[in-house]
Structure formats: C-alpha cells, structure tokens
Amino acid sequence: MNEKLNAGTSVKVQARDTNKAATITVDSEIQKSSGEDTSFTLEAQSNITINKSIGSTYGKLNVNLHSDTDGDGVGVVLVNADINTNGGGFTSGSGKVITDGKVGTYFGNGGTTDSRTINTNGGAINLYGDVAIGLNGGNLQLNTNGGVVQATGTIDSGNAYKIYTMGTPEWTALVTKIKSQYSSLQLLSRLPIAPSQGLQGFEQSA
What we know:
The protein has about 210 residues and is mainly beta. It is about 10% helix and about 35% strand. The strands form 4 sheets. A 6-stranded parallel sheet has the order 1-4-7-10-13-16, with no helix packed on it. The chain has a 6-stranded parallel sheet with strand order 2-5-8-11-14-17, with no helix packed on it. Strands 3-6-9-12-15 form a 5-stranded parallel sheet.
C-alpha cells in the first residue's frame, strides 16, 4: 500500500459482500514518504475502523473514509489513530453518497486515555453526518492551518465545551490562561468564516 502511494498512485479499497456487512480495519500504519500528490480512499458497506495512523511526509495525501456505502444506516467511521494529510483534504462520511449519510464519524482511542489529532496543513476537513467524540478525557484537535472545517451533523461528546469568540474578554482570558501553561503558543488553525461570526474557539470544561 505504501509503495503505491509513494509512486503517486491513488489507492481505493472497497469492501463488499452479499450480506452488506463488509468492514475495513486499518491495523498497520499508512505512510506516504515520496512521490506526487495522491489520494487514499476506503469504502465499506459497514464500519471503517482506523487503529493505526495515516499520514504523509512528502506531498499531499487526500484521505477519504466512506462507510455504509449501501445506505442502510449501518456503518460508521471510527478514528482511533491520528491522521496527517500534509496539505491534502480529510473527508469522512457515510451513506450511498458520502455527503448524504447521517451515521457519521466517531473519534476514539480504543478505550485508553489519549488525544486524537487530524492535521491537514491547509487542506479542508469535511465531516459529513453526526460526529461523536469518546476520548476518555483526551482532546480532539482538528488542525487545518487555514483550511476550511465543515461538520454537517450534530457533535456529541461525553465532555462539555464552551465557545469563545475572538476579541471578547473571555477570549483574552483564555489566551492568557493557555500562555501561562505553555512556554510557547502556536495557533494551529485559522478557520475562514463569515466576518459577522468572528473567530471562535472551544475549551473542554470537564
């Protein structure tokens, strides 16, 4: 698989069976380290489970995870490992058409206490359908460095979150708090949104 990606070949893996219950599980790292920009696509009638990292250190890698391709409402994308597209886009969804499904994506860690990171370095993040976060106290970071982030469904988590808007006293207090905890602060994502909305951030409150 890695050899094909390093050669600049787009890779698509499809799982189908007569019972409409075919799944895909990634238990080995997928890493692109050379070659032209390319894409890595997984399509399954039921679940897609990512247990090992997917990433690129050379060229863009567009990652597409498409579950429930038969559209019967059974099949989710489970992301239990980090993804780094190096400028490529990250798209996750379910249903006959990836943009139509409502089952969506689950960000987890296999039952451990760990954070989950999706880095695109300019690429867009599109999460079609509902999103569930189960990180046992860990953090979910969607870092785009200027790319668009889109989630079309509801976002559910066992944690609670508060929204902060740039320019408000609450935002300033949050930034001051973070700076006091870390010796350096790097802004990981700037989300292009309507000027009337302002830049927003999230903090896990417990």
